[in-house]
Amino acid sequence: MLVPVVPIGNSRGIRLPKVVLNKFLVKDKMDMEITDKGILLTPIPEHPRMGWAEAFCSMHDNKEDMLENIPDSEDLEWEW
After folding, report:
1. Cys-Cys with 71: which of 21, 35, 75, 79 at CB 3.0–4.6 Å?
2. How crowded is residue 30: how many other Cβ atoms within 10 Å of its Cβ?
3. How far apart are alpha carbons 76 and 2 in whole angstroms?
4. What would the DSSP string read from start to end of 18-52?
């Protein structure tokens, strides 16, 4: 699908057809990733933290939520 690049203020952008926005449930923001092949736009879920509680519980059950030993600042050599 070809879409024109249009001026938007001091920038330029594209307009996404309503049918495309509805198909992917785009509300007001999208995640933009720059790749070697181009620009990848991904819809952001309406509840961005959905599933976090279950993931944290799973991490705890698998003992993946432990911090590694962090050295004291006195033990570090600083370079200026």
Report:
1. 75
2. 14
3. 56
4. HHHHHHTT--S-EEEEE-SS-EEEEEPPSSTTTTH
Rounded to the nearest 5 degrees, what angle is found at the Cα of 7, between the Cα atoms of 9 and 24? 100
**pLDDT 10s digits, 46-77:** 777 888 999 999 999 998 888 877 777 776 77
DSSP assignment letter at 75:
G
Three-state SS for 6?
A: strand
pTM above 0.70, yes or no: no
What letter would DSSP give residue 76?
Answer: S
Q: Which residues pair with 73 in a beta bridge?
A: none
